[in-house]
Amino acid sequence: MIFRLLLVLGLLLYSLIGIVQAKSSEDEANLTVTHYQSQARYQYGLKILELALSKLEIPFKIQSVDYPDLNEARGERMVEKGELDLEFMSTNADRESKLLAVKIPIYRGILGLRLMLVSKDKQEEMQNISSIEDLRHYVGGHGTHWGDLPVYEANSLKVVTSAQYETLFTLLKHNRFDYFHRGINEVWDEVLRHSDQLVVADKVMLFYPHPVYFFVSRKRPELAEAIEKGLKLAIEDGSFKRLFLEEAKPFIDRAELESRKLIILKNPVIPPGTPPLETSWWLPEKFQLQLKDFPLIQ
After folding, report:
1. Is residue 83's pLDDT more than 50?
2. Would you call 218 helix, strand, or coil by DSSP?
3. Ordered alpha helix ranges (H), 149-238
4. pTM for the full predicted model
């Protein structure tokens, strides 16, 4: 009787050890990725990350952290220290020196396409702008700490800045500047909120090279390699393009790009060796030809 009891207990213990070992192996197989970009405006980037990791056919988990006062600057420092695994941001030499850049642009360059919010009484005047020389006669609005401010300075464009996002709309309404450049994915909600006085200028748009990459902590080189592999697989099987167009096509269609003039700006913060942007998924062919001979870096 005692022998049988010991045998049963032994079998139970063996089973429990097997379960623990299996669970441990499963946990080790999981690829866990931590980040700080949980706000709504980052959801597309997180969808691309999830798509890339899903191509690897291994269990993975994407976790966001929610610390008080966790802004982009603090979040990036945490990635640099290895306290978090990655972020997705526009590229520059400083960021590439501190983090591992996965050099596949997740927005396909579309964040560099800018439409102009203007006051209703200046709509006709602003839509007749056809060159960067014309644009230099006007003043733009810009966030004080936004990363693309050097683009406007490098192109000799006059700007008025404010550290407060909402203040820029107030300043535009009071004619403190002439236009407020906005991303094609941002401008429609904004003009809806300010439709009493503001409109999107017709017939003109701005573009500057603006690659956004996944930047991975240097303590996780294997993660950078995994994301790059997954992104390439998603491009090959067409799922990257499908997700991009699912997110971007409504904005692209509404902007009626074919009817606009394209003004190209140089971007001085792009590091040497940055791969050319592939814009064929969304930019009309006539503008691709215009960009063809325009250097990515000037």
Report:
1. yes
2. coil
3. 149-154, 165-173, 187-193, 221-236
4. 0.81
